[in-house]
Each structure stands twice: as C-alpha cells, then as structure tokens.
Design goal:
Layout lengths: L1 H17 L3 E7 L2 E7 L4 H13 L5 E7 L3 E5 L2 H10 L22 E4 L13 E5 L6 H11 L5 H9 L12 E7 L1 H8 L14 E6 L5
Antiparallel strand pairs: 1-2, 1-8, 2-7, 3-4, 3-8, 4-6, 5-6, 5-7
Organism: Pedobacter africanus
EC number: 5.2.1.8
Keywords: Isomerase
Length: 214
C-alpha cells in the first residue's frame, strides 16, 4: 500500500511536466542534463532563456558544490557583491521571486540563487541544481515545527523516497527540473571540492535551448 501511495504521489506531482513548453540542455564536462522549465514561473523561465541567449551560461562553471545539498553554477555571491561594493551606484538588479507552493525542492529541481534580500528576489546569473538527501518523518516533522508550515503529504513522500532540500521551500524560486541525466547531476555533486566548496577540477557547462516538440 505504501509503495502504491508513493507511485500515485509521483504521478500526481509529475503532471506538471505535461504542461511545460520549454526544455534546455546543460552540456557539462560530466555529460548532458536535460531540464524542463516550469511554465508556472514564467518570469524566471523567460529571464533564464534571455540570459542563455546573451551568453551568460557559455563556458560557465559549477563553482560551488556541496555534496547532498546543491550544485551551484554561474556567478558566485562574492563576485556579484564585491562588484556592487566597488560601485554602489551600479547594484546588480534582483529578479522578483515567484514562489509557488506546488513547486518544491525535490532532488533534481533547478532554482535561482540569491543573497539575503528580504524580498527573496533572485540573481539573474546564478542557478543551482538540488541534490539533497532522503528525509525521515522525524526530520520533516521538526522542519514543519521550525517553519510553522505543513508539508503536503505527496511532497513529504517524495522527500522521504527521492530526497531533496525541504528547508529551502518558500525561500528560493524554482523554475525547472531534470528530465534526463540525473546521474550526471549526481556525478557533479560528488566531485572533490576545497574548503570553500569549489571543485578541485573545474566543472564547465554550456546551456542550449532545445527545439519545442510538436
């Protein structure tokens, strides 16, 4: 019965994929990853596609890799913030958050990085892939109490069986998820890194937009 409930939960949660219109491919030095962008967060989808077209993700790096948490790519926080500090009149723009309760930080989701701004607005040129790990009922219960919110049953089951980073829910915008190449994402998240979480051997990636299926 528990296995059946999980399969039904995943089927329900996967329905979001059928309505999506755009996919991209991350061509990395570890292999390719295909990601379906969410139509539920259209502003982030279109912002990301615009940055791809501009070349912001050409020969980019996964430059902060934290095992069982996230693999972050694009510009680092320090790079952006130091540039702003040098010229406060040229603050990097932030992109208004699109937080959706049905989009949650399960393993394989694509999110937009940000600083600690109270509006939870995103950077234009920083992304992350969720790795995370499987959660226990006790861990999820503690998180519910800490954040004073209820985790829906279907999401809870996915966190217990697939894994993710549930404590990020409601704080960072998600705008896509992996449909092919999860093993490549796992390989990236497993690379050796230094004390600052920078990979010892660079993990390079390029992003291309895939033709829409007819």
């Amino acid at each position: 019965m528990k296995k059946l409930f999980f399969l039904l939960s995943v089927l329900c949660l996967s329905q979001v994929l059928f309505a999506q219109s755009t996919s991209v491919r991350f061509m990395t030095s570890k292999g390719n990853i295909t990601i379906m962008l969410y139509d539920e967060t259209p502003k982030h989808r279109d912002m990301f596609l615009k940055e791809v077209k501009k070349g912001s993700y050409k020969n980019a790096l996964f430059n902060r890799v934290i095992k069982d948490f996230v693999s972050q790519g694009g510009e680092l926080d320090d790079t952006i913030l130091n540039r702003e500090k040098r010229d406060p009149k040229k603050l990097a723009p932030r992109f208004a958050a699109e937080l959706k309760p049905n989009l949650f930080h399960k393993k394989g989701t694509l999110g937009a990085g940000r600083d600690d701004n109270p509006e939870k607005a995103s950077y234009f040129t920083q992304i992350y892939l969720v790795a995370g790990k499987k959660q226990s009922d006790a861990q999820l219960d503690a998180l519910e109490k800490k954040k004073n919110r209820k985790i829906p049953a279907a999401q809870r089951e996915v966190y217990k069986t697939l894994g993710g980073t549930p404590h990020l829910d409601g704080d960072y915008t998600l705008f896509g998820e992996i449909t092919e190449g999860m093993e490549v994402a796992d390989a990236i998240n497993s690379v050796a890194a230094d004390k600052n979480d920078v990979p010892l051997n660079p993990v390079v990636f390029n992003v291309v937009v895939l033709p829409k299926k007819r």
